[in-house]
C-alpha cells in the first residue's frame, strides 16, 4: 500500500495568515492526489483534485501543487471558516489511502 | 445537485454483520462508481471499497474477506455489509460517489457505528 505522510499534524495560526501543508507519498503517485477539508462532525469535502485543480466553487485562496512524491496545499489569507482538518488522498493505485490529517487551529 | 445519505443501525454486536445503506438523490445511480469510507475515532480515513453501478467491485485487501458492496439501481441505493465485526470496526462510515473526474464527491454526512455488546 502507498503510505501518505502529512506534515505538520497540527498548526496553530491566525486569521489572515498563509499556511502550507505537505503530503509525501511512499512512492510515485504522479498527480493522482486530492485534498479534503473536514470540519468537526462533518464529512470530508473535496477541495483540490489532480494535485492542483480546484473544484468548482472552492475559494481561490486554496491552491495545490506537486507531483511524484511531494505535494503541498497552501491556504492564503486564512478565513475563520478555514479552521478545520485537512487530509490528502492518493488515487494512483488501490487500495486508496489517506494521510493522517493536519489540524489547523486558531491561535 | 446529487446528495447522499447513509442509514442503518448505530450499534452492532461483536461477531455480527454491520449493514448500511446509502440513498442517492438528485441524480441516477447508473453510470458511476460508489464507495464506502470509514474513520475510526482518532484515526485516519480508510477506503473500504467500491461497486460500479453494474455490479463490478473492488475492495480494500485489509477487509476483503469481510466486506460486500452492492448497488440497487431500482431504489437508487447502494449498500455496505461488513461481517464478523469487532470493536476495531467502530467508526464513522461515509458513502461517496466517484465523479467523472475520478475523484470522490460528494460524500454523505456520515453515520457513527459502534460495535459493542
Please give a structural write-up.
- Chain A is mainly β and 107 residues long.
- Chain A is built from no helices and eleven strands.
- In chain A, strands 2, 4, 5, 6, 9, 10 and 11 form a seven-stranded mixed sheet that branches. Chain A has a four-stranded antiparallel sheet with strand order 1-3-8-7, with no helix packed on it.
- The mean pLDDT of chain A is 97.
- With 117 residues, chain B is mainly beta.
- Chain B is built from no helices and eleven strands.
- In chain B, the strands form two sheets. In chain B, strands 2, 4, 5, 6, 9, 10 and 11 form a seven-stranded mixed sheet that branches. A four-stranded antiparallel sheet of chain B has the order 1-3-8-7, with no helix packed on it.
- Chain B is globular, with a radius of gyration of 13 Å.
Give the tags.
heterodimer; A: 107 residues; 7-stranded mixed sheet; 4-stranded antiparallel sheet; 11 strands; 50% strand; B: mainly beta; globular
Strand and helix layout:
The complex is a heterodimer of chains A (107) and B (117).
Chain A: E1 4-7, E2 10-13, E3 19-25, E4 33-38, E5 45-49, E6 53-54, E7 62-67, E8 70-75, E9 85-90, E10 97-98, E11 102-106
Parallel strand pairs in A: 2-11
Antiparallel strand pairs in A: 1-3, 3-8, 4-5, 4-9, 5-6, 7-8, 9-10, 9-11
Chain B: E1 3-7, E2 11-12, E3 18-25, E4 33-39, E5 46-52, E6 57-59, E7 67-72, E8 77-82, E9 91-98, E10 104-107, E11 111-115
Parallel strand pairs in B: 2-11
Antiparallel strand pairs in B: 1-3, 3-8, 4-5, 4-9, 5-6, 7-8, 9-10, 9-11
- Give the low-confidence spans of chain A: none
- Mean pLDDT figure of chain B: 96
Element order, helices and strands of chain A? EEEEEEEEEEE
Helix- and strand-based class of chain B?
mainly beta
Termini separation of chain A: 36 Å
For the biggest sheet of chain A, the summary is: 7 strands, mixed
- Count of helical stretches of chain A: 0
Mind describing the biggest β-sheet of chain B? 7 strands, mixed
CA-atom Rg of chain A in angstroms: 13 Å
Tell me, rounded to a whole number, the average pLDDT of chain A. 97
**Oligomerization state of this entry?**
heterodimer
What would you call the structural class of chain A? Answer: mainly beta
Strand content of chain A: over 45%
Unreliable stretches of chain B, pLDDT < 50, 5 or more residues?
A: none
Helix tally of chain B equals 0
User: How far apart, in Å, are the first and last alpha carbons of chain B?
Assistant: 39 Å
Amino acid at each position: 500500500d502507498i503510505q501518505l505522510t502529512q506534515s505538520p499534524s497540527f498548526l496553530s495560526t491566525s486569521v489572515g495568515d498563509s499556511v502550507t501543508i505537505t503530503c509525501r507519498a511512499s512512492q510515485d503517485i504522479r498527480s493522482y492526489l486530492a485534498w479534503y477539508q473536514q470540519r468537526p462532525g462533518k464529512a470530508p469535502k473535496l477541495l483540490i483534485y489532480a494535485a492542483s485543480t480546484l473544484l468548482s466553487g472552492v475559494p481561490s485562496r486554496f491552491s495545490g501543487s506537486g507531483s511524484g512524491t511531494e505535494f503541498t496545499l497552501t491556504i492564503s489569507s486564512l478565513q475563520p471558516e478555514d479552521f478545520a482538518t485537512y487530509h490528502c488522498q492518493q488515487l494512483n493505485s488501490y487500495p486508496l489511502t489517506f494521510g493522517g490529517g493536519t489540524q489547523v487551529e486558531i491561535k | 445537485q446529487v446528495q447522499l445519505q447513509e442509514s442503518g443501525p448505530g450499534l452492532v454486536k461483536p461477531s455480527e454483520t454491520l449493514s448500511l445503506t446509502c440513498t442517492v438523490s438528485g441524480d441516477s445511480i447508473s453510470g458511476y462508481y460508489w464507495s464506502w469510507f470509514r474513520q475510526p475515532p482518532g484515526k485516519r480515513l480508510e477506503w473500504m471499497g467500491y461497486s460500479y453501478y453494474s455490479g463490478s467491485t473492488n475492495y480494500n485487501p485489509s477487509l476483503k474477506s469481510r466486506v460486500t458492496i452492492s448497488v440497487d439501481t431500482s431504489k437508487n441505493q447502494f449498500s455496505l455489509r461488513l461481517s464478523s465485526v469487532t470493536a476495531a470496526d467502530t467508526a464513522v462510515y461515509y458513502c461517496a460517489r466517484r465523479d467523472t473526474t475520478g475523484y470522490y464527491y460528494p460524500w454523505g454526512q456520515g453515520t457513527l457505528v459502534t460495535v459493542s455488546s
